[in-house]
Specification:
With 128 residues, the protein is mainly beta. The protein has 2 helices and 10 strands, in the order H-E-E-H-E-E-E-E-E-E-E-E. It has one domain (24-127): Immunoglobulin-like (Sandwich), CATH 2.60.40. It has helices at residues 2-13, 44-48, and strands at 33-38, 41-42, 51-58, 65-68, 71-72, 76-79, 82-87, 96-104, 118-119, 123-127. It is elongated and about 45 Å long.
Length: 128
Amino acid sequence: MHRRLWLVAAVLFVPGCSNTLNPFCGSSRPVPMIGSLSPSTVSFSAVQQGATLTVNGSQFVSASEVEINGTALSTTVVSSTQLKVTLTTGIISGPESVKVNVMTPSGNSADLGCSSGGKSSVLVLTVN
């Protein structure tokens, strides 16, 4: 009986253990995946007027944030597949190629061997 209990405990708390095998990973958050930007090109004059950028992808949660050149923005989570942000001159100072990604902070389960949150890949928004 004690051998079985030890084996189960070892499986549950081994570092790098799969979240699906660890029942304590319920509060872990998925790594966001970014698929497209709409629009993918925007004029600087539109940015000066507060253009809206839509980020499409998957595995977005209520804590997900859009980052522009590494700066997190106030983000509206429309759904698990869509986020919206407002582009302003406080973020974009002129015509340039802008790096856009999504960041989801980790949940409350990092100390239990669960992976949680992370950053998506980067897409480029062209501001002309």
